[in-house]
Specification:
104 residues; 3-stranded antiparallel β-sheet; 4-stranded antiparallel β-sheet; globular; mainly beta
């Protein structure tokens, strides 16, 4: 994160995209790609996780967790559908498969 912008680079096509999330302070905020590389998940200083689609750069979701401080670590489990985020506490994000089937 530089100048309040999350930058990502595609090393195959050498393209650059910009997705922004404002930060009032210079601080380390965690981010990662989803295992399929279709999404970027980034923590924020207000304790939320923001999710962008890589192909469009559009923000598609904001996850509200129980993080009382900035999220400094975000990691996706490459084998299972689980995301972990942490600040002074940790959260494990596991999708509710029943809700996913209803929305489909």
């Amino acid at each position: 994160m530089n100048n309040n912008v999350v930058n990502y680079f595609n090393s195959i096509s050498i393209s650059q995209g910009i997705m922004s999330e404002r930060s009032d302070k210079a601080m380390h905020l965690g981010s990662c790609f989803s295992p399929d590389s279709n999404y970027v998940i980034a923590g924020s200083q207000d304790g939320h996780l923001h999710i962008w689609a890589v192909d469009t750069g559009n923000k598609i979701a904001v996850l509200e967790g129980n993080h009382p401080s900035p999220i400094g670590c975000v990691a996706f489990n490459p084998k299972y559908m689980m995301l972990a985020s942490s600040c002074t506490n940790a959260a494990f994000w596991i999708p509710n498969l029943e809700e996913l089937q209803v929305q489909s």
